[in-house]
Design a protein that fits this description.
Helix content is 38%, strand content 11%. Helix 18 (459-473) crosses helix 22 (563-572).
């Protein structure tokens, strides 16, 4: 199972635009035909009924429940709202209610922090204010929460969630908003509100921003009285209204209008904002350009019902521009008053027609025209896992020690900037970008999630090892085949007996490396020098670049494709990795996309930027089996998640689970070789230093000379990626290693998530 949160910068806007309710002029042909066909069958009373959402009473006895179903069938109201019970109880009632309707009901819930807010056996997230305390890099956790709540709503047959709260929590004496709001900061409230909204709507659930025009700076509760918001229009524009404008611009489908007394926006004294045409139609519709559904707050609340009778309130609310009357205090009186007003006022009749069309259009876009009640189900273990991942992301983002270690690396000149990603069960739960491409330059590019880093030896596992896996998986080569079977330049050399398994395990008696670049004129010169190089006398573990240079040649000889083209075709393109490649400048990226490495004065005599740092890989043309790949933390994490998923990514199988298991097996433990095929592992005995001591023995990964590290732990379905350009401006001293930053951070991750405790000494 993969729950991966793919990079959202491109798809979020698409999802928002796809789900945002269009204007009448923007309807598709199918939408218009359905709405027109339904409208043609409705009487005036039935059109009015579509504007009403009623409360589903809790703990009804069988007789009362039957009477409620009959009432829904008789009145043909447009929707219902659940407030209490269990998931199974609500599922049963939802099915029965929908079976008793002529037009499918819009099912609503007020689940700001999850279904557990209303259903006692469902999951609850932290209140919104917790997300407001996290760093800006953690904003996507609000998206993930919205998406997860939305997915659970859809399973339950819920179409509308009255969330998010985008009131700015600017009054500490506010009795009703408080922890329900994201923040007292306008920008943070807007950012997080948009993320939550987009998450909900990406799951096909209408988000409803509330409480317009802003309930944050009040000292009374509109459930009990009519609160006063005494600010000037200028203040309201800059504080209370700004989050709503942000969500409208981002495509929110619904807005809930609160019962507030706002003299700066409504001249009539003590007229609740719900009933104010200047607020609902003038500001929300005309000034902000909102074309979605407007909901009143609960009309039974004393902020409204304490001043107006149900019929009068209903007429004024619709005339003001509200489309949906939520929880009227008296359904019959409400419908009768609207009918009488429509019969004697053509403008009122037009308003009812307009709102009815909006409601029907929303129902169509939310899939109500084609419901399958048999598909409804309660949240399951996968949903619980998604919820747990978000909680774990909150834990990591609340730990100041991780930030401290990452920032200390920059201050100690261990690296000018870095990326870090943590994934759990395929979902990104922590993402950080710090610093710049270079030190002490205010104009330098800041590190972003799309910044590409030279992966150095991480290339061995994210390109070469994957390619050999694919060949073995396809039965084209065997691990016990000899390199010389495929590489003519090894014929007659002392390397004729080296197998693929030995080269992948760094047990082939090869030299670690050599300065071939210093004398080679062509790539073939390097291959000749490798073939002529001496072997170690004893069979023992010795990490070597040479074996992977030759393995890349095997890939090309067998497949007919050079290594870069092979992995692009079989892995990077199918996984839609857009920032993973060799030779990035040849792939259309410019220098602003790539972090520089060393200011090298021995071989190339210049700053190395956009081309591979490793000199032998450079001499081989920039594509080599041991180095040369560029990528970012998100996409390298995706490659590791592919392996944890047993070879499946986004529903497509790219490798078999058997070949992954084969490559994650130690074959030379008799020689105290901790490594498996291609990948590094924890020490077999004792506490590891190159990887967190909490990492399980099933874990695997790799590091790179330029300051990179990737690690996957199948026991915990955990991926950790750290990328930096620690070799800038000089490869020495290696402060990244001296300070043990990569593994110290990894250890904190295990500790925060409560994993690997049995491994700790």
């Amino acid at each position: 199972m993969s729950l991966k949160s793919t990079p959202k910068s491109i798809v979020i806007l698409f999802l928002a635009l796809a789900l945002a309710l269009p204007s009448v002029a923007q309807q598709t042909r199918g939408e218009k035909e359905w709405v027109d066909s339904v409208m043609a069958t409705l009487t005036l009373e039935q059109k009015i009924a579509q504007l009403i959402v009623v409360r589903v009473p809790s703990n009804m006895k069988p007789a009362a429940e039957k009477e409620f179903y009959n009432k829904i069938q008789r009145t043909r109201v447009g929707g219902v709202c659940f407030f209490a019970g269990t998931t199974q109880q609500q599922l049963r009632q939802t099915r029965e209610l929908q079976r008793h309707t002529f037009i499918p009901l819009m099912v609503c819930i007020d689940a700001e922090w999850g279904l557990g807010m209303r259903l006692k056996d469902a999951f609850s997230f932290p209140r919104q204010n917790i997300f407001g305390t996290l760093p800006v890099q953690a904003d996507t956790l609000a998206y993930d929460m919205g998406r997860t709540i939305g997915q659970q709503c859809r399973k339950m047959g819920i179409h509308v969630n009255f969330a998010p709260v985008v009131d700015v929590n600017s009054n500490p004496r506010n009795p009703v908003i408080g922890t329900r709001a994201f923040s007292s900061d306008v920008e943070r409230t807007t950012r997080l509100g948009i993320q939550y909204m987009l998450g909900l709507q990406s799951a096909g659930v209408m988000a409803v921003a509330k409480h317009f025009p802003g309930h944050g700076d009040t000292e009374t509760d509109s459930h009990k009285t009519l609160p006063l918001v005494a600010h000037s229009r200028e203040h309201l524009d800059s504080v209370e209204l700004r989050p709503f404008k942000g969500l409208v611009d981002a495509g929110v489908m619904g807005v809930m209008v609160a019962h507030l007394n706002v003299p700066a926006l409504e001249q009539q004294e003590h007229l609740p904002s719900t009933l104010s045409e200047s607020i609902v139609s003038g500001i929300l519709r005309d000034e902000m350009g909102f074309e979605g559904l407007t909901f009143t707050d609960g009309m039974e609340m004393k902020g409204l019902s304490g001043h107006f009778n149900p019929g009068e309130a209903a007429v004024k609310a619709v005339r003001a521009g509200n489309d949906v009357l939520l929880l009227p205090a008296n359904l019959e009186e409400t419908m009768l008053a609207l009918r009488e007003a429509a019969l004697y006022d053509p403008a009122m009749l037009q308003r009812i027609e307009q709102s009815c069309r909006r409601v029907l259009l929303a129902k169509y876009r939310l899939g109500l025209s084609n419901m399958n009640l048999d598909m409804l189900t309660a949240p399951n273990a996968d949903d619980s896992l998604c919820c747990q991942m978000i909680l774990e992301g909150i834990k990591l983002n609340q730990d100041p020690r991780i930030d401290s270690v990452l920032l200390s690396g920059i201050s100690h000149h261990a690296y000018p900037g870095c990326q870090m990603v943590v994934m759990r069960h395929g979902q990104v739960i922590y993402r950080r970008c710090y610093g710049s491409y270079v030190y002490d330059d205010p104009l330098a590019c800041r590190v972003s999630p799309s910044t590409m880093y030279d992966l150095a030896s991480v290339t061995k596992v994210t390109a070469t090892t994957l390619a050999v896996m694919k060949l073995v998986d396809n039965g084209v080569v065997s691990l016990d085949d000899k390199l010389a079977d495929y590489l003519p330049y090894l014929k007659g050399s002392n390397k004729e007996q080296i197998t693929l398994r030995q080269a992948l395990s760094h047990i082939a008696r090869l030299k670690a490396f050599d300065n071939y670049w210093a004398t080679a004129r062509t790539p073939d010169d390097i291959r000749r020098m490798i073939a002529e190089s001496p072997l170690q006398k004893k069979e023992k573990y010795l990490y070597s670049d040479l074996g992977f240079i030759m393995l890349a040649d095997v890939v090309e000889q067998v497949s007919g494709l050079p290594l870069d083209k092979f992995v692009e075709r079989h892995f990077y393109k199918p996984m839609r990795l857009t920032h993973t490649c060799f030779q990035p400048l040849s792939h259309g990226f410019d220098l602003d996309n790539v972090a520089p490495t060393e200011d090298e004065m021995t071989y190339r005599n210049r700053l190395i930027h956009g081309v591979v740092h490793d000199p032998n890989a450079y001499a081989l043309g920039g594509v080599a089996g041991h180095a040369g790949l560029f990528s970012n933390a998100d996409e390298v994490g995706a490659l590791m998640q592919l392996l944890l998923n047993g070879g499946v990514y986004n529903g497509h199988r790219l490798l078999s689970s058997d070949v992954i298991d084969t490559f994650n097996t130690r074959y030379y433990t008799r020689l105290e070789n901790r490594r498996v095929l291609g990948f590094d592992k924890p020490l077999i005995h004792g506490e590891s230093q190159h990887v967190a001591p909490e990492a399980s023995q099933s874990s695997f990964g790799h590091t790179g000379f330029t300051g990179t590290m990737i690690w996957a732990d199948p026991q915990y379905d955990l991926v950790y990626v750290f990328l930096s350009n620690r070799v800038h401006p000089s490869a020495t001293p290696n402060r990244l290693a001296l300070l043990n930053i990569r593994t110290n951070i990894q250890s904190l991750i295990y500790q925060d998530l409560g994993l690997g405790k049995s491994c700790k000494k």
